[in-house]
Design a protein that fits this description.
The chain is mainly alpha-helical. It contains nine helices and eight strands. Helix 4 (192-203) packs across helix 5.
Length: 280
């Protein structure tokens, strides 16, 4: 397990000379390092504060800790190459249906009813949006384009590529062996800095030596570009938000990539609720 502090402005927390960090490599489990408890969290925070007070004394710093259990749930329509069909067809992301109040809808058999919704759009390298479904007026209007077409629009020759390698066990270091592998490595499909680091880590040679594994983890984390770390804040600023609003948006939305088109309406709604509570 790896625990570290990351900033949209500086990247991973480091001293000015790069010799000190608050990163923790924790070997969780019985008979190993045990469990990452409040004691470890406090100790790590103290190390971080020493670095900040010494090398960044003229700035205000806020520590934000996320709850790891939230990583188990992503937005229903979040980008994912998993289960994507290779060719054009009627396809969507399956989820449990909910009513207007956010409660599950049950069928006559007492089981939750499932529905399918379109996957959200992708993003080209220049920031332009890529719709994964054919638009109205097209002969295949409303249908999912398929991985082959999606990759073709991104400049890849995927006509003769298979959907995925057997059980998605691609050859070590392979990046263009199958449609799913190529999409898996696309920037808008990568889950911000941690996902980027995981992708790099999987490209390193496998080993049973703990020292090799630890070294690979450190190399992968240190190779994450600052642009990837700050991607969500860049998108927020691009949409006209200030610093406080960008921080709110980064906390509110869990897609970890670009922000939704309903952003400004959601922000106004949240502000109205706060105003109503403050005057109550």
């Amino acid at each position: 397990m790896v625990a570290d502090f990351v900033s949209a402005d500086y990247g991973w927390l480091r001293s000015r000379d790069g010799k000190e960090s608050a990163r923790v490599l924790f070997r969780a489990g019985k008979g190993r390092d045990g469990y990452f408890t409040n004691d470890e969290i406090l100790a790590q925070a103290e190390r971080a504060m020493v670095i900040l007070e010494k090398d960044y004394p003229d700035e205000d710093h806020i520590f934000v800790f996320d709850n790891a259990t939230t990583h188990l749930k992503r937005a229903d329509d979040v980008l994912s190459a998993r289960n994507m069909p290779r060719s054009c067809r009627a396809w969507g992301v399956e989820r449990l249906m909910k009513d207007a109040e956010g409660k599950l809808v049950y069928g006559a058999d007492g089981k939750p009813i499932k529905e399918k919704i379109p996957m959200k759009h992708g993003t080209f390298s220049d920031g332009a949006l890529q719709d994964f479904y054919y638009p109205p007026g097209h002969e295949s209007a409303g249908l999912f384009k398929g991985m082959t077409k999606i990759l073709e629009e991104r400049g890849f020759d995927a006509l003769n590529l298979k959907a995925q390698c057997k059980k998605f066990n691609c050859a070590t270091g392979a990046t263009n062996c199958c449609c799913r592998r190529i999409l898996y490595n696309q920037p808008d499909f990568i889950n911000q800095c941690w996902g980027y680091a995981k992708r790099l880590y999987r490209c390193y040679p496998s080993s049973s030596k703990e020292t090799d594994l630890e070294q690979n983890v450190m190399r992968a984390l240190d190779a994450v570009p600052l642009l990837t770390i700050s991607r969500r804040f860049i998108d927020a600023y691009h949409k006209g938000l200030n610093g406080a609003q960008a921080a709110w948006a980064a906390k509110e939305y869990r897609g970890h990539r670009v922000l939704p088109s309903t952003l400004m309406a959601d922000l106004d709604s949240a502000k109205s609720k706060d105003d109503a509570l403050s005057t109550a």
